[in-house]
Specification:
The chain has strands at 2-7, 10-13, 18-26, 33-39, 46-51, 58-60, 68-73, 78-83, 92-99, 112-113, 117-122. With 123 residues, the chain is an all-beta fold. β7 and β8 (78-83) form a beta hairpin.
């Protein structure tokens, strides 16, 4: 069992940056593919980014490509999401998730989820 705890959210202005962290505890998450998802008010949860267990391969939603960067430090059992040039439409609760196997954009394929951290971007 893996427990995931997100942190780093907050209220920022458009154009600002934030770095989200996802700390894993319990069974090590170093062998897991990790992903970030988000859910805006009144909308369904959507894929943001994912990274393989060794950090070699990443994938991004088109809406964040070039602005967000996912990374991981397996020694620290932590996954990061660096978010630059934030826009009001990035406002959402951001969730960290883990799965075994290869990259996936599908929410249903992820076995472990954190409670989320809220990001609000004002215009």
């Amino acid at each position: 069992q893996v427990q995931l705890v997100e942190s780093g959210g907050g209220l920022v202005q458009a154009g600002d940056s934030l770095r989200l962290s996802c700390a894993a505890s319990g069974r090590t998450a170093s062998g897991y593919t990790m992903g970030w998802f988000r859910q805006a008010p009144g909308k369904e949860r959507e894929f943001v980014s994912t990274i393989t267990w060794n950090g070699a391969i990443t994938d991004y939603a088109d809406s964040v490509k070039g602005r967000f960067t996912i990374s991981r430090d397996n020694n620290m059992n932590t996954v990061y999401l660096q978010m630059n040039s934030l826009k009001p439409e990035d406002t959402a609760v951001y969730y960290c998730a883990g799965k075994t196997g290869s990259l996936s954009r599908l929410i249903s394929w992820y076995d472990y989820w954190g409670q989320g951290t809220r990001v609000t971007v004002s215009s």
